[in-house]
Amino acid sequence: MSESAKPHHPIPQAKGEKSHGNDFSYVGIDAILEQMRRKAMKQGFELNIMVVGQSGLGKSTLMNTLFKSKVSRKSAQPNPEERIPKTIEIKSISHDIEEKGVRMKLTVIDTPGFGDQINNENCWQPIMKFINDQYETYLQEEININRKKRIPDSRVHCCIYFIPATGHCLRPLDVEFMRRLSKVVNIVPVIAKADTLTLEERDFFKQTIREELRANGIDVYPQKEFDEDAEDRIINDKIREMIPFAVVGSDQEYQVNGKKILGRKTKWGTIEVENIAHCEFAYLRDLLIRTHMQNIKDITGSIHYETYRVRRLNESNEQQQQQPRIVQANGVAAQHEALTHEM
Amino acid sequence: MASTDVARQPDNGVRPLSLAGHVGFDSLPDQLVNKSTYQGFCFNILCIGETGIGKSTLMDTLFNTNFENFESSHFEPQVKLRAQTYDLQESNVRLRLTVVNTVGFGDQMNKQESYQPVVDYIDRQFESYLQEELKIKRSLHNYHDSRVHACLYFISPSGHSLKSLDLVTMKKLDSKVNIIPVIAKADTISKSELHKFKIKIMSELVSNGVQIYQFPLDDETVAKVNTTMNGHLPFAVVGSTEEVSVGNKMVKARQYPWGVVQVENENHCDFIKLREMLICVNMEDLREQTHTRHYELYRRCKLEEMGFKDTDPECKPVSLQQTYEAKRQEFLVELQKREDEMRQMFVQRVKEKEAELKEAERELQSRFEQLKRLHADEKAALEEKKRLLDDDQSSFGKRRAAAQLLQAQSLTANGKKDKDRKNSGFM
């Protein structure tokens, strides 16, 4: 009972046109693209975006502008008693949106209270824990024996980090957070409320930020090491020249030159959100949604999740080796402890 | 998760929302398709059928190339499988196609075990995928998926019914792979016979509980054509790589003295339908069914067989890791026990051998003693004999000496007598 697999015999194939039946050389292999598209449309897509930043930086507004609908509710002003939040909350809201037959389940994960406390040490911990919990849920489902046909994907695909437009440099909080989280999730840093910066100030600020990121070894999306080929690298290099994007968000429409556009109206002019001369919102939107969304999800799934999985499985291995024949309850507790450990 | 889970269901916490403008995520399917095109696709077909039934020719015709095939003999002692992988390209789509053929199927006198190599091959592919999936450091997106996506079962065009070998084989395979039965060499059956033959085959399959692959009906765009095609199963196909001129075109056909059977003519055979269904319409669904149904079933059975469960007797979720560790401990303990046993056995054997050897030595020793005694006895006897002989000799010597003396004495006595006589005579 033997078999021999002779790999790759590239046999020149007549390139057929799309006319069925008349052209003999047409086999129909390229019809698989259409089949794949149909399947994707039927299944729908899932996207989980997390927004992190201090309160008042315009996170909810930006989300609403990106998805042109009320995906986030702006937080109400807390009473004086509640003004100092004790902990960081993680709020996750899902919506079903549809465009031209493509259905997507969008989940926006908000982190109110981040950076708002007086002592902000360890403010990344709840967020890190949340992200790892999502990976854990997915892992548990994946190693089940009876598992679902399509494992529900609640992993955070992209984390948008809002940098306040100080114009100087990154704050220690920013550096700490991004340094830790860029290892577990795709981080896209944006300069919030960029309408307070002039163009020169903006360029200077961006350059400073880029240098600081490089100096601290922070790899934000798109990461250099995951470029697939030369073409990719060219496109991504252009993007890397532009990050962090200086964005302005708005969900109010105004009339400018006879067109209705989203913008912010001030006494000295109207800032058009989608005008690339005014701010870089359009670049952010194109990156996140129109061109790189699939790539973001892929990197989350095949790299960040796999890293987590390797770490987790190795951890359990070591634990079991150190304490053999441990009672089940203890074993579970020990594993939980290892999880909440920060990296 | 079926498609309805992503639909508008306000009760599971997901609210539907309408968009006020163009966001742009309708390009998402395009992004997905582009990525898949970049990676390439892979498709694996298994062809089961008797030797000479036309499997290789049909593959050549389907994919419009000449896969290097050679004819197999009819004298194979066992069914074997031959897998060959090819890289095909059409426009910008790259396909890695693996064609697996059975060699010697149906040729043996005793066909009871004919299906086993096929089942083993399919299981082996599932197993290697499972192994990759369970690895700690894995690379699933780079993994060359060798699981069988479609199985074309070639039915002999007898015109009567399925052979029992066909039924048995298909029954064994229907839960492991998508089976698409085809009637081979369909140009030997007339139209009316073919119709009856098809009905007979389908009813036999149904009555024997064989689950063949049904083209999927849940997508409206293809539901209609799939329903029609489901009614035409099994497809009656003719394969040919030779071209014959018909009218003013060159078509793939088989030329007979009484006419030309055109492969791509729907009135002549169902080849076009097979190509439509297998490649143009349902290739992705075949791959998906293999992954989500057949592979999951295999995985579930395999893991349960190894003793893993999702919940332990108290109905608390048991992690795979813990069970795996427990199993591993068990296995190590078992190994240790066996090692000890073996060691003991070895020691035992050594002792036994030693005893045996000692026994042999003792025996040898006793024999040596015995022989020595015998030897000593003989020696003593010989000594005795020698002594006797010596005694004899000495007594003989003495007697001889005595005799000689007597003789000498008698001589002198005689001499004296003579002398006396002489002396007396003188006087």
TrEMBL record, chain A:
Coiled coil: none annotated. The keyword Cell cycle applies. It holds the Pfam family Septin. GO terms for cellular component: cytoskeleton. Residues 43-315 form the Septin-type G domain. It is found in: Cytoplasm, Cytoskeleton. Its main location: cytoplasm. Residues 1-22 are annotated as: Disordered. It comes from the Eukaryota. GO terms for molecular function: GTP binding. One of its GO terms (biological process) is cell division. Gene3D superfamilies: P-loop containing nucleotide triphosphate hydrolases. Keywords: Cell cycle, Cell division, Cytoplasm, Cytoskeleton, GTP-binding, Nucleotide-binding. Belongs to the TRAFAC class TrmE-Era-EngA-EngB-Septin-like GTPase superfamily. Septin GTPase family. This is Septin 9b. The lineage of its organism: Eukaryota, Metazoa, Chordata, Craniata, Vertebrata.
From TrEMBL, chain B:
It holds the Pfam family Septin. Belongs to the TRAFAC class TrmE-Era-EngA-EngB-Septin-like GTPase superfamily. Septin GTPase family. Residues 343-391 form a coiled coil. Residues 415-427 have a biased composition (Basic and acidic residues). Residues 407-427 are annotated as: Disordered. The keyword Ion transport does not apply. It comes from Labrus bergylta (ballan wrasse). This is Septin. GO terms for molecular function: GTP binding.
